[in-house]
Amino acid sequence: MKAIILAAGKGERFGDITKIIPKPLIKLGELSLIEHNILLLKKFGFTELVINVSYLSNMIIEYLGSGDKYKVNINYSIESPEPLETGGGIQNALPLLGNTPFLVINSDIYTNCKLSDIKINDDDLASIVMVENPDHNIYGDFSLDNNRVTFSNKNNMTYSGIGIYRPEIFTNEKVKKYKLIDILEKQIKNNKISGLKHEGIWHDVGDVKKLKNVNNLFFNN
């Protein structure tokens, strides 16, 4: 199965840092954010990778190259002149991802999620990983009821930024700037999304404060 790492955003919540370096290349410990996820993917058997890039894309491409140094194969989906957001970015990359299910992971998370545990049912369009609500998202995104993602408000959790998607979930959508959550919400209403809970390490590393917290937790001992 192929995997796509979402890495096209401008990282504006990092302020001046991302004026000179793209967010995926910001260091978390000795490795960049995106390298942690490349190695996580490789650990669980994902070696055919697509990375969508836009903002300061040349820096990312030059830094990661073809993936040889990580023993994976990397292809790049380039968005120009502006990033297409998470939904549009994945859809734009479909020619590189093929006609079978693929894994999606955000470049700005740090996790030990066992990616090989994610399974997608034949009748579903996606299977997403949910986590307990962090402080910055206390009300959560969706509910998880008996491994179905719903809007029941009974067990609200946060979407981790990880999931397996069928390319068919993007049928009838045009390549444009839109968020993945727009597609998810539509198909949750159609009962086409399953989910599982990850109870291990998971951190959103989307701004300077979160980066500092994760560095303090795992890399400054």
Structure description:
With 221 residues, the chain is an alpha/beta fold. The chain contains 6 helices and 13 strands. Strands 1, 4, 5, 6, 8, 9, 10, 11 and 12 form a 9-stranded mixed β-sheet that branches. A two-stranded antiparallel sheet has the order 2-3. A two-stranded antiparallel sheet has the order 7-13. It is globular and about 40 Å long. The model has no long low-confidence stretch (mean pLDDT 96).
Beta percentage is 25-35%
Tell me the overall shape: globular
H/E element sequence: EEEHEHEHHEEEEEEHEEH
Give the mean pLDDT.
Answer: 96
Number of domains: 1
The CATH superfamily turns out to be Spore Coat Polysaccharide Biosynthesis Protein SpsA, Chain A
The CATH topology is Spore Coat Polysaccharide Biosynthesis Protein SpsA, Chain A
Number of alpha- plus pi-helical segments: 6
Reported for the largest beta sheet, the result is: 9 strands, mixed
* Tally of strands: 13
Structural class: alpha/beta
**Unreliable runs, pLDDT <50, ≥5 residues?**
none
Summarize the structure.
The chain is an alpha/beta fold.
Task: Provide key terms for this protein.
single chain, about 220 residues, alpha/beta, two-stranded antiparallel sheet, about 25% strand, globular
